[in-house]
Amino acid sequence: MEVKILSVSELKDIYQNHMFRDFPKEEIKPLSTLEYLLSTGEYAPLAYFDGGEMIGYTLLIASAGRQACLLDYFAVLPQFRSGGRGSQILKYLREHFLGKTHQILIECEHPDFAPDRDQALRRLRFYSNAGAKKAEIETKLFGVRYLVFALPCDGSAAPLPTEDDIVFYYKKMVPEGKYDEEVEIYR
After folding, report:
1. Nearest 5 degrees, angle CA 149-CA 95-CA 77?
2. Given this model, what pLDDT does residue 171 score?
């Protein structure tokens, strides 16, 4: 598997040609937000290839010195799903962030509020099978309810995310002045 860091134009291509197929519309941030995050140097848009063909992509927010990074988006293209590619990508991410952060935070749509409960439950099983542990906090971001998981990068029992971790990254993603009306954190 080859991994490529995406340029602004490649991120725009992923946004326009893949994300609206791979994620519910309510979960997709405006392209301007993704471009802004990329301009800060803290956004890591990665595409994964096998034999020159893209098999998936991840978009992460990673700030130096933090105990965690946040997996913003993760998709395996439809024709490559259920073949172990997603697990390979998560393994790569764990190795890539080893020594840079302790864990990768993952938001999973809460099955009790998801339009497709079965799909939400499959995602939860996938992350749990990969070694992610459910945190004690849940969130609601722009009307979408999430469970929060932590995937340790070093294989140890890294501490689960605190509210501080989530607040830090959400404040980077949510436009100024919108945080209080668009973000809720549940314990």
Report:
1. 70
2. 93
CA angle 16, 18, 23 (to 5 degrees): 110
Q: Which residue has the tokens 């998801």?
A: 114
For 178, the token pair is 């919108």
Q: Are 121 and 110 in contact (CB under 8 A)?
A: no
Question: What mean pLDDT comes out for the span 34-63?
Answer: 95
Query: Rounded distance, CA 156 to CA 164, Å?
Result: 21
Q: How far apart are CA 148 and CA 31, in angstroms?
A: 24
Neighbours of 7 (CB within 10 A): 11
Residues sharing a CB contact under 8 Å with residue 58, sequence separation 6 or more, in sequence order: 44, 45, 46, 48, 71, 73, 74, 75, 89, 93
Q: Which of 169, 156, 53, 46 is nearest to 106 (CA)?
A: 169
Using the Cα atoms of residue 128, residue 132, residue 137 and residue 138 in order, give the sign of their dihedral: negative
The pTM assigned to this predicted structure is 0.91
